[in-house]
Amino acid sequence: MSTPPGEYYTEERWQNWIDRLDEEEIDPEDEDSARLLLNLQDDAAIAVAKIITDHDDELIDRETALEEIADIRAIVLEEIDLDDEETVMLIDGVQTSLVCVFYAAEEYIAEGPAEEGTVIDYIEAAADAEAEEDLDAALGYCVQAGTLVIDGEELDVDAAAELEYGLVSEWANGLDSLQTAMSDPEVVEEDEEGDA
Asked: What Pfam families has UniProt attached to this entry (predicted)?
């Protein structure tokens, strides 16, 4: 069954997560806090995965799929206005990770998967580009890696974990969420709280 346009992800859904993070004292070293942040990220990735799947199943056309992804991106990447600076910083990390998810989904829907290279080839090229401070190229390589992840190629999480901390490691983290979402698009549903 196709999800009606505009219902893949809503501002209210994102805000519910932000409110929960705001209410709880977030400590990235704490397992529950880390899980909550990951769930926030996975939840948005799942919405993207559902759009891709509906597009692949021809339930929505390309234009609708791209509009839906743009809508989610606008919701998720909006600046967070909270008093606790550390919480804002942690959510900013999630937003950064998801940037690559949105672009990879758009690229996949518009152009299909990258025609050559492997996920790890692109991730390594992205890391090299980041080291040379060419962040546009780094993002471009990560996006290509993402199209392959969407197409079913596996992102080696161990190899990604060896990346130096930076934008590429954040983007690879987002692609890991997308990979999980593509294989199991219901993973965060039990965590959903509509009454926040």
From this structure: DUF2150 (PF09920)
